[in-house]
Amino acid sequence: MAKAISLKQPFAWGAVHGWKDCENRSWYTDYRGPIWIHASKSPDNILGTEPADWAKERRKKFFPGLPPWNELSFGAIIGMVDLVDCVTVEVAESRKKSIHQHGEWCFLLENARVLKKPIPWTGNLGIFSIGLEPEDDMFLPQGKK
Which domains does the chain have, with CATH numbers? Predict the structure, then answer.
């Protein structure tokens, strides 16, 4: 059965577009392999922001290519990545991973793929199993993100 993890926006978008190669958690996981990225339903990270805020220089550095907030998906599976390792932040830093590392554990992500169309889905805590198996024709071609 396929695995999934919920991330809040804009971090879910960043993971499936390949610029967020490190997901930070307070807990360790043994899981390695493909994992669906679920964009959580909660817009907590972006409430109170205006579309103009997304164009500011700081956001461009941390969220390159990010669309306007009202174009982000919520409460849906939006893509897939490969979870290749779970390391401490010190190890992630020594491997020169992205600027997105902090906290106790870093889930190292590679091979980002974006779904052609988000699939509405209810998220869950932790890494959870879902009955959705990936097929090549579900994803945008690499470079067409």
Answer: 2-138 (2.30.130.30)
Q: Which of 4, 22, 2, 23 lies closest to 75, judged by CA?
A: 4
Nearest to 77 by CA among 2, 4, 1: 4
CA trace torsion 77, 82, 84, 89 (10° rounding): -40
The answer to whether 82 touches 109, Cβ cutoff 8 Å, is yes
Q: DSSP secondary-structure letter at 98?
A: -
Taking only the tens place, the pLDDT of each residue in 27-58 is 999 999 999 999 999 776 655 555 566 556 55
**Whole-prediction pTM:** 0.87
Shortest CA distance to 87 belongs to which of 103, 67, 108?
108
